[in-house]
Amino acid sequence: MKTFQMGRRALLGAAMAFGLGGAAIADGHQVVDSIHFLIPGGAGGGWDGTARGTGEALTGAGLVGTASFENMSGGGGGKAIGYLIENAESNHGTLMVNSTPIVIRSLTGVFPHNFRDLTLVAGTIGDYAAMVVGKDSPINSMEELLAAYDADPNGTAIGGGSVPGGMDHLVAAMVMEAAGKDALGVKYIPYDAGGKAMAALLSGEIAALSTGFSEAVDLANAGEVKIIGVTAPERVDAAPDAMTMKEQGIDTEFVNWRGFFGAPGLPEDKVAMYQDALTKMYDTPEWETVRARNGWVNIHNNGDEFKAFLEGQEQVIGDLMKKLGFL
User: Fold this and answer.
1) With the C-alpha atoms ordered 24, 30, 33, 39, is the resulting torsion angle positive or negative?
2) pTM attached to this predicted model
3) Residue 256 near residue 167, CB atoms below 8 Å
4) Contact between 286 and 62 (Cβ < 8 Å)
5) Which of 5, 52, 160, 195 qualifies as a cystine partner to 210, CB 3.0-4.6 A?
6) Strands 158-160, 64-71: parallel, antiparallel or unpaired by DSSP?
């Protein structure tokens, strides 16, 4: 079977080289000729890795003929969004990657547009959030962290890698609020790098750290931290011993999703082709290699489901930001 598939792929390559390929090949394997990925940030960031990893899997699996990539930093992602909207007609071959900040930054007015101004193609992956404590901390669960907080709110600070009002802060506030505490009373200390946050954990400057799940898994595997709560609906295979918030009676879920958007007015047939390619990608070994390498969780929402998911997140984050005084 493998020989046949390789032969077929070689034939496909020959057909493309002679210009015979189109949106549909005889065996129906290739779905899209080419995709240009627009990345709203610089090289090496989460958006960059998501776009390049997705392009690698799609082309490697033969679902897309060619993929190209363009980094367009600026305005917290706003420059790329504005570009896609202003040049919509000439960008029907473009998919822009984005994530939770498109919700947060449009709420705070960092840029004037929001996800409704674009064509929603699909949400593809996610990274849950986690609460961790230092490896030598006496705290081993959310219940114990909450008890420490009740005993000394000011001495039980929570750290994070984003500014006040950023994602790590909002997750910490969301978790504490769901646990029946006043989110405004939580002392949050931002750090600009993981190393500084780790030093603060070890020194006791902060009692816990709010961070992305994949980062928490890396730190736990290195023996640096204990994961005391994950914002997933159920336990995640990458850290099967790490309890969810829900298991501990804290009814909160959060995922930093990443997904793809098209220009406004993108023709329906183009949207359907992109969605078809991304849907089929999940069943390929090429995607599993990319996903596992990055520690991503498959979270797939197409079109209207994606919109409902984003509207739900916008509501929850918006309410919390108002309470914390950021809106």
Assistant:
1) positive
2) 0.81
3) yes
4) no
5) 160
6) unpaired
